[in-house]
Amino acid sequence: MKKIYHLKTCSTCVRIIKSLNLPNDVTFQDIKTEDITVKQLEELEKLAGSYEALFSKRAKLYKEMGLKDQNLSEKDFKHYILEHYTFLSRPVVVYNDHIFIGNSAKTVEAAKAFIHSNE
Q1: Backbone region of residue 4 per phi and psi (left: phi > 0; alpha: psi in -120 to 50; beta: other values)
Q2: CB within 8 A of 25, min separation 6: which ones?
């Protein structure tokens, strides 16, 4: 599978996707207009190793809802990601059963290297 979960209104996601120079067979899912499904999230969790790895602790709602002061379980992370798109760390790049989560320079460079070595 070659898919990117992103927000098309997020300038960081747009910049990263552009920098990846992706082949034409990659599909995109704007998580704001097309909710992530339970099945999709479960598939991402298998690749990532945990729901926490997919969860954005930088989301504004994380602080507003007081979640940073709670001890969240994997079940909680899954619930919040499904409840509101902002809790999914973005972008999530899935490429040939490898996953790259978030927008750190290290993650983006790893994704670029992997994608271009597997074209």
Answers
A1: beta
A2: 2
φ, ψ of residue 118 in degrees (nearest 5)? -120, 20
State how far the alpha carbon of 15 is from the alpha carbons of 5, 23, 83, 96, 104, in Å.
14, 16, 26, 22, 12
- Would you state the pLDDT for residue 35? 95
Q: Which of 112, 116, 118 is nearest to 20 (CA)?
A: 112
Neighbours of 90 (CB within 10 A): 22
State which amino acid sits at residue 52.
Answer: E
- Tokens found for residue 32: 């704001």
| Predicted confidence (pLDDT) per residue in 31-52, tens digit | 999 999 999 999 999 999 999 9
In sequence order, which residues have a C-beta less than 8 Å from that of residue 46 and are 6 or more positions away? none
Q: What is the pTM of this model?
A: 0.94
Decide: helix, strand or coil at residue 52. helix
